[in-house]
Amino acid sequence: MCIRGGGSKDFYGGPIRGESLGVGAYRGIVDYEPSELVITARGGTPLAEIEQALHERGQLLAFEPPHYADSVAATTGRATIGGCISAGLSGPRRPYAGAARDAVLGIRLLDGKANDLRFGGQVMKNVAGFDVARLLTGSLGTLGVILEVSLKVLPLPVAQATLRFEHSSAAAIALMNAWAGKPLPISATAFHDGQLHVRLSGASAAVSAAVKTLGGERIAETQARSFWQDIRDHTHAFFAAPGPLWRLSLKSTAPPLELDGAELVEWGGALRWLATNADAADLRAAAAANGGHATLFRGGDKSVGVFHPLPPVLEKIHRNLKQTFDPSGVFNPGRLYRDW
């Protein structure tokens, strides 16, 4: 079976196989306690619905999850919270506020043996022992159907500002790493085509002080909001390029990669997007040499493997987990690795 919420991430992972198991109708916010900074929702709940409820109470999902529903990559559906956690993808705020996995407090799961299971809870102290709730984040539905998820939320920042600088790729990477070692309220960075953008978020005094310290050109708030949403949802012009899109996770200090194609750098230098037709083996060798891994995020020939090959020991652990949760291989065959 192919587990499917809104279909906004059909492009991600291996080819879709199996009969569609639609979970979009299993939706709704189950519990929301603003004072406790936690929200619980059914897997089919639209991400936009959750974010709207949070915004009304002055809160947000800190990992800034991408929607992709309006991007060139996916135009067929709306992102759901179950798909968001299954994909495990985070937006521009990720290195400064934590990843999707860090926000997950508890999960209710339907496994491959039709067991209705609960892991974790609604407070951090419940996350003990085998942290299955976070394990499921990024598993692409290969271990079961996410029925409910409880997430930690944070208050909206009081103030924000986005600055723009003109730099070379090497200078931008060096500058982002230098900023990371200073007490600055940075919440996002992005470099492309000679322009480095940095977003500052937090208390008004802290943001104002950082603006004076860093300099650069301050962008109007409306324009800045649109820019970061375009980066988050891949509606920025960079992502419209035809052909394969690779996602390289590296050490933030890794120098610019000498590879053909266009590049966009996020996460203080740790995330490199490459629109390139370069050989998969060369890309993965370059990523490994810089302490990271490479994912064929969209397009291209998926026969090369979407995700970076696992070391033998780690692959054995993954296979054992799949065998435990879904022994008959019912859910999302081949979405993570071809023969799973």
Rg to the nearest angstrom? 20 Å
Q: What is the averaged pLDDT score? A: 93
- CATH C-level class of the largest domain: Alpha Beta
Q: Which structural category do the helix and sheet elements fall into?
A: alpha+beta
Q: How many runs of DSSP E, i.e. beta strands?
A: 17
Helix content: 25-40%
The share of residues in extended strands comes to 25-35%
What is the CATH architecture assignment of the largest domain? 2-Layer Sandwich
What does this structure look like?
The chain has ten helices and 17 strands. It has 340 residues and is of the alpha+beta class. Strand 6 and strand 7 form a beta hairpin. The longest helix is centred in the last third of the chain and has 14 residues. About 2% of the residues have low confidence.
Features of the shown structure:
single chain, 340 residues, alpha+beta, Uridine Diphospho-n-acetylenolpyruvylglucosamine Reductase, domain 3, Alpha-Beta Plaits, 3 domains, 8-stranded antiparallel sheet, 5-stranded antiparallel sheet, 26% strand
Concise summary:
This protein has 340 residues and is of the alpha+beta class. Helix content is 26%, strand content 26%.
What is the element layout, followed by pairings?
Elements: E1 2-4, E2 20-22, E3 29-33, E4 38-42, H1 47-56, E5 59-60, H2 81-87, H3 94-97, H4 100-103, E6 104-110, E7 116-120, H5 132-135, E8 145-152, E9 154-155, E10 159-166, H6 169-180, E11 186-192, E12 195-202, H7 204-214, E13 217-219, H8 221-233, E14 245-249, E15 262-266, E16 271-275, H9 280-289, E17 293-298, H10 312-325
Parallel strand pairs: 1-2
Antiparallel strand pairs: 3-4, 4-8, 5-9, 6-7, 6-8, 10-12, 10-13, 11-12, 11-15, 14-16, 14-17, 15-16
